[in-house]
Design a protein that fits this description.
1 helix; single chain; five-stranded mixed β-sheet; 131 residues; four-stranded antiparallel β-sheet; Immunoglobulin-like; mainly beta
Length: 131
Amino acid sequence: MKKITILIFFFFLSINVFADEWPHENISNAEFALDIVDRIPINIIEELDNSLGKIYFFTNIRNLQGQSITHRWIYKDKVMADIVFDVKGPRWRVWSSKNLWHTWLGKWTVQVLTSESEVLYEKEFNYIDTQ
């Protein structure tokens, strides 16, 4: 019985250690990527050049089932897109994409919002000129 108790203790300890590394208590992963394959972000990036016109934002949502979240794409303080997702399970992987015009250079931000517009997390990427 003592061994089982110790195993359970270390199991819960490991969950807390992983949760401490999450970007937010309800987001275990948030990444910009060039593609999503089998619900996994591929070619993680922080900067994109304007020879590539499409970028994805992936989030792994935790413990928000029954709620909705929004990916809000912002460029030069202007909301360029709001994509709403209904979270239907305790772990829900969602992604949105944005087709970028080659002249929309500079800093972009994507916010992850609750249905009450609370910002859970935000992440930035740079869209740069190829020249």
